[in-house]
Amino acid sequence: MDLTHRPRRLRQDGVRGLVSETSLEPTDLIAPVFVDATADERVAIESMPGHERVPLEEAVSRVEEVLETGVEAVMLFGIPESKDADGSRAWAEDGVIQEATRRITAETDAYVVTDVCLCEYTEHGHCGTLEDGLDSHDAEPTTTVDNDATLESLERIAISHAEAGADMVAPSGMMDGMVGAIRSALDREGYEHVPIMSYAAKYESAFYGPFRDAADGAPAFGNRRHYQMDPANAREAMREVRLDAEQGADVLMVKPALPYLDIVRDLRREFDHPVAAYNVSGEYAMLHAAAEKGWLDLEAVALESLLSIKRAGADLILTYFAEDVATRL
Ligand code: PBG
Question: Given 3.30.230.10, 3.20.20.70, 2.70.50.60, 3.10.20.30, which CATH number is that of 22-253?
Answer without folding.
Answer: 3.20.20.70
